[in-house]
Amino acid sequence: MRPGRPRAAGAALAALTALLLPLTGCDRPAAPTGHPVAADPAGGGGRGGDRDTDRSAGGDGGRGPGGDSGRGRTLPPVVDHVRTTDRVVFLTYDDGAERDPAFAGLVRERHLPVTLFLTDTVTGPAYGDLAGLRPFGASLQNHTLDHRSLRGLPRAGQRAEICGQQTKLRSRFGVRAHLLRPPHGTYDTTTLRAAADCGVTALVLWRAALAPDGDLTYTRGAHRLRPGDIVAVDPDRPSATNLTARTERLLRSIEEQGLRVGKLESYL
Question: How many other CB atoms are there within 10 angstroms of residue 255's CB atom?
Fold first, then answer.
């Protein structure tokens, strides 16, 4: 073998290695995007990333970007529907439930896994009553400290509202809430960042709402309940009346459609 050939072969191998190295990362899984895996994109133009974003923030389409700019933090998703094959829907209440004493009896009797989004300045005096519903399936989650509209507030102000209520729920109940319903269903990208700062893992809106007259209204998609729908009962109407009677009527409708009430926290 002539001198110098091994060096030439080595140079050729080094060149080939240099060409192949950039390709070794092509099969790596993509980084988390932060998009809501629980949300159903098939429903048409609703809040939370679909075409109709009137009640959410502009710019991010309501679903939040893949990470917090400059921090690499994955932001919580925004959901109004859970993608599931289980024939369940989820009942949620924004304060006010304590104003109807019969409602607590209904939850106890039927062991309803309702989700109660609580504001300290609204629900504070009734915290003790609501705590008694937890063994019967009720979940207590975050609806901010003072019920201020979050959209447009600076990050510090939004953190004060969200983290402040996290602290209240933890100190009064030992609850580490991980779901947030922003007051009036409005939020912006700053809300997602502040919520992530406070340990929130999802912002919960709704696809269906129970109106004071007992009828269901829908924010998007088909005007009927579908498995995985999140239903808001009297969203931000703490003075609405006949809560128990309307909930019982809703439960009958749910059962007639072959559905049942599921525990939202088990799916998010």
Answer: 11
Supply 254's token pair.
Answer: 């749910």
Provide the 10 A C-beta neighbour count for residue 37: 12
- Sorted by sequence, the CB contacts under 8 Å of residue 150 that are 6+ apart come out as 144, 158, 161, 162, 182, 183, 186, 187, 188, 190, 191, 194
For 98-111, give the DSSP string.
Answer: GG-HHHHHHHHHHT
Residue 172: closest CA among 207, 131, 211: 131
Predicted confidence (pLDDT) per residue in 98-115, tens digit? 677 788 899 999 999 999
Question: How far is residue 226 CA from its own chain's centroid?
Answer: 18
Q: Do 220 and 44 touch, CB atoms closer than 8 A?
A: yes
Record the tokens describing residue 54, joined without a space.
């009137």
- For residue 220, what are the contacts with CB-CB under 8 A and spacing of at least 6? 43, 44, 45, 46, 47, 50, 52, 80, 207
Contact between 196 and 75 under an 8 Å Cβ cutoff? The reply is yes
How many residues can be counted in the chain? 268
**What global pTM score does this model have?**
0.74
| Largest Cα span, the chain | 98
Q: How many CB atoms lie within 10 A of CB 172?
A: 16
Q: Name the stretches of the chain with pLDDT < 50.
A: 1-67, 69-70
